[in-house]
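Data availability (excerpt). The following record was deposited with the supplementary files.
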Amino acid sequence: MHVQEWLETVPAVAVYALVGLVIGLESLGIPLPGEIILVSSALLASQHGEIDPVVLGASATAGAIIGDSIGYAIGRKGGRPLLAWLGNKFPKHFSEGHIATAERSFEKWGMWAVFFGRFVALLRIFAGPLAGVLRMPYWKFAIANVLGGILWAGGTTAVIYYVGIVAESWLKRFSWLGLVAAVLVGVTSMLVLKRRAKSAGQNLEAAGEPAP
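Predicted structure:
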């Protein structure tokens, strides 16, 4: 059964709880499809009045912030042995290459890696635990965590919700033409946001390189 079809069979409060839980566990360091659940739930909210998009966005944001915070605490306590353990349990996501890449990102970008990492699936899993392992000052982590969580979770919910509203309205008037246009607008918005995050990260990396 498709994710959205399954979500339609459960009450709204269960959708809020599921979104917060899945995103929280993903942010904590467990590879789960948090973005897929969030996007599916936001689209569902645009089609069914029972799901409040504000509550949905708040649940997603809370899950992201709390999950990252727990991941930070676990990483700070577990240290590098934790990364080795995760590598054994989830070799696809926590391979030595992925860990090395993420670590270099953190060393060069600092708190910005936590902030922009929200928009990159792999870094979204790494951000909390790795920030703890590398002993990033908590106040820096907390600021990046809260702002990144609000922008990613709240922003994604808002964009997908309004895309769904527009798609439904246009679909009634222009059939598939309206749906395609609405989806393109939504996808373009998300790609632009992710591209800006990537560009900012590259600029930070370039600024961190020693002058020739």
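Summary of structural features: Residues 207-212 have pLDDT under 50 and may be disordered.
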